[in-house]
Write a structure and sequence with these properties.
The protein has about 425 residues and is an alpha+beta fold. It has a domain of about 290 residues: Cytochrome p450 (Orthogonal Bundle). Helices cover about 45% and strands about 5% of the residues. A hairpin with a 2-residue loop joins strand 7 and strand 8. Belongs to the cytochrome P450 family.
Length: about 425
């Protein structure tokens, strides 16, 4: 077996990298499928980049997701969510292996099935329209040079996925109204020596208390919804208390923040590719084109830039590279989705691609269980934005858009936009 020839790990952080990581991914792919990389916390990992290597790695049974498999060095720098939250909130599906993963996953599959997602499409459309009805009546920043226009994240992209999620999982309105958006950032841990550590720990305690309130509510007032079924499963001994809390945590965070981010990456991609945007506008009544566009936009710039950690239980050979037991392995879904060996001319946004599925929702047993719902959400959201916000454009220069500094995800936290004329309610 060989080792990587690079003398030092590649840094995967910084403003320039987060704004456009694709030149670095192109360089890494050309040099080989596996590379040593370093994240802002100082943790290092083995990064897999090519499409074929990524697909194989995502199905590699030698690589486990349970944090207990990580070595001491990884735990010291990456597994830094404090106790008791780490033990109580970090045993969800993304951190489990069979048979535990199989047992837990089957409890959520029906709620996120393609059939259910399609049945919810009319309600999802109502949610999108209601949010756009609340936008300022005139967001033409060109008419007022000092105006930033409407922030599409605050007004729509951050609210829409949460309202859909609340419908899907059965989150009562009284509790939905109490949810704080910053809780969705709890998967971006702050190191023990960071000045923001105290605020981060307070955020976790608040979220944990919120989850306890959800569980208590569903014990007293159960319904025919996913949250009620999970609480009942815990009562029947099918889940431990920690597994229940952790699954609710995953639903609240992974069930909405990635869709928010994917909406922002999709809108940014369209605004940077005016021909593609014009085509969608001209054919916005064509559902087949919109569905293809969502797939291509998700491939082109995925909100899941990198997967969560995987670990070999024993020393392993990974695509020609020796990976010691307990070292962390991460797959770059974004790099795989821009692999020219899989997708010709990968840096071009092409709604007519015929090369088959991308890896933006993962692959193998950890394929995103809510992928069908996310696709419907993205189709409804983008279609509605194109219909209701004619002339949609950035209200600030592109270079002023700040990309989130998250380790694993891509997106923007603020997206000032303008449009040509007042929003008109549907119908």
């Amino acid at each position: 077996m060989t080792t990587v020839s690079l003398p030092d790990p590649f840094p995967l952080h910084g403003r320039a990298y987060k704004r456009d990581p694709y030149p670095l991914y192109e360089e890494l792919r050309a040099a080989g499928p596996v590379h040593r990389v370093r994240f802002p916390s100082g943790v290092t990992a083995w990064l897999v980049t090519g499409h074929s290597a990524a697909q194989q790695t995502l199905s590699d049974s030698r690589l486990g997701k349970n944090h207990d498999l990580g070595n001491d060095g990884w735990r010291a720098r990456a597994s830094i969510m404090p106790e008791p939250q780490h033990s109580q909130l970090q045993v969800h599906l993304l951190h489990q292996d069979p048979p535990t993963h199989t047992r837990m996953r089957r409890l959520v599959l029906d709620a996120f099935s393609a059939r259910r997602a399609e049945a919810l499409r009319p309600r999802i459309q109502e949610i999108a329209d209601a949010l756009l009805d609340e936008l300022p009546g005139d967001a033409d920043a060109d008419a007022d040079p000092d105006a930033d226009g409407a922030d599409l994240v605050a007004c729509f992209a951050a609210r829409f996925p949460f309202l859909v999620l609340a419908e899907v999982i059965g989150l009562p309105p009284v509790l939905a109204a109490r949810f704080r958006r910053e809780w969705g950032k709890a998967v971006q841990p702050v190191g023990p020596d960071d000045p923001g550590r105290g605020a981060y720990e307070e955020l976790l305690r608040g979220l944990q208390g919120y989850i306890a309130d959800i569980v208590a509510y569903k014990r007293v007032l159960p319904g025919h919804d996913l949250l009620s079924r999970l609480v009942a499963a815990q009562g029947a001994g099918e889940l431990t208390g920690e597994e229940l809390d952790s699954m609710v945590f995953q639903l609240l965070v992974a069930g909405q923040e990635p869709v928010t981010n994917q909406l922002t990456t999709a809108v940014m991609a369209l605004l940077r590719n005016p021909r593609a945007l014009d085509r969608l506008r001209a054919e916005r009544e064509n559902p087949e084109l919109l569905a293809r566009a969502v797939e291509e936009l998700t491939r082109y710039d995925s909100a899941f830039e990198l997967t969560t950690w995987r670990f070999p239980a024993e020393d392993a050979e990974l695509h020609g590279t020796r990976v010691p037991a307990g070292d962390s392995v991460i797959v770059s879904l974004s790099a795989a989705n821009r692999d020219p060996e899989r997708f010709p001319d990968p840096d071009t946004l092409d709604f007519d691609r015929t090369q088959g599925p991308h890896l933006a929702f993962g692959h193998g047993i950890h394929f995103c269980p809510a992928a069908a719902l996310a696709r419907v959400e993205l189709q409804v959201a983008l279609g509605t934005l194109l219909e209701r916000l004619p002339g949609l454009r950035l209200a600030v220069p592109d270079e002023e858009i700040e990309w989130i500094p998250a380790v694993l995800g891509r997106g923007v936290d603020r997206l000032p936009v303008a449009f040509d004329r007042p929003v008109c309610p549907r119908g």
